[in-house]
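User: I'll paste a sequence; please echo it back and then give the predicted structure.

Assistant: Echoing your sequence first, then the prediction.
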Amino acid sequence: MTVKVTDKIDQESYDKIVQLLVEYNSSKTQQFGNEINKPIEIIARNEMNEIVGGLYGRSLWGTLEIKTFVVKTENRNEGIGRKLINDAEKKAKNRNCRFISLDTFSFQAPEFYEKLGFKKIGTETDFPKGFEKYYYRKKLDA
């Protein structure tokens, strides 16, 4: 056996690793076969068609998982973030998701998520050093 360690991602290898994980997970989650498991992209643009914010994630096994979410610093407090999260919530409900989940760092905007009804379900301390990483979940109404 050989093991290669690198900081450059080989797309072919990455795709194979993802395929192996999907195959394994599928073998253990057959009861979720009817769930809508798809990626999501929501992009906000200004009048000049410049990106001012966006959200990426996926619905998986009845939960919409937000993986990346940001609003440009100069466009914060304009309601853009709330709009993006609300659109994600609508899409999650259309996909029959029961929850939305995400994680954020203590120096980001945990209060923002709490205002939108997310509940903190976990904390990882000293990550990054001197800060915390919070895990949030929101139960969606039927």
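The first helix runs from residue 11 to 28. The CA atoms of residues 50 and 103 lie 26 Å apart.
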